[in-house]
Amino acid sequence: MGARVDETILEMQKKLYKEELIKDLRSKHGSQFYPFCIEPMPTERDRLIKPMTDADRALRKQWLEDQKLSPREPVDVPEWTRKNIFRRVYHGFFDGFCNVFKPILVGSLFDVLINFRGRHARRHFAYIFQKSLYLILSYVPCGIKLSTHLG
Questions:
Q1: 13 with 6: CB under 8 angstroms?
Q2: φ and ψ at residue 54, rounded to 5 degrees
Q3: pTM of the full structure
Q4: Burial tier of 12 (Cβ tally within 10 Å: 0-12, 13-18, 19+)
Q5: What is the dihedral of CA 72, 74, 80, 83, to 10 degrees?
Q6: Which GO terms describe its cellular component (predicted)?
Q7: For residue 128, is it within any domain?
């Protein structure tokens, strides 16, 4: 017969094996394979640690071009978007209501948002800031102490 292994050592080995298995599963994020980066030279450090060759530059350029979305993306697949029965019930009415007005509003609303963000954003921000400051100062009494703990 062989040498008998102590029970405490067996328990320690089982515990270590279980911890290693859980750690392995967490690092795989639910897959059977480990995650890996498909981007060539993802960090700036990788790009600066040694000079890039022309092939590396071409590979990086191709990667960046591949990340651009086509005009038809993102594709909305209703079968892929899972909703439970309660969400389907109360979303049904509002989705139908929105689908009626979507062709009308999408173009004009998008133009308004782009114009607000681009050309007139500073002017609108200054106007809102000025009105907010006026309201705050007009309704705060003059005798109020903001820092009472200082004296």
A1: no
A2: -65, -35
A3: 0.34
A4: exposed
A5: -120
A6: mitochondrion
A7: yes
The domain tally of the chain equals 1
In a domain, 9, yes or no: no
**Cα 111 to Cα 117: distance, rounded to the nearest angstrom:** 10
78, 70 in Cβ contact below 8 A? no
Q: For residue 61, is it within any domain?
A: no
Spatial separation of the C-alpha atoms in residues 126 and 137, rounded to whole Å: 16
Residue 17, domain member (yes or no): no
Collect all residues with Cβ–Cβ distance below 8 Å to 41 and sequence separation of at least 6: 47, 52, 56, 60
Query: pLDDT tens digit string along 88-129?
Result: 887 788 778 777 877 777 666 656 655 555 556 667 778 888
- Residues spanned by the domain of 113: 105-138
Q: Among 50-59, 70-79, 106-115, which stretch is predicted with the lowest mean pLDDT? A: 106-115
Q: In the prediction, which pLDDT does 2 show?
A: 60
Span 125-148, pLDDT tens digits: 788 888 888 887 777 766 555 555
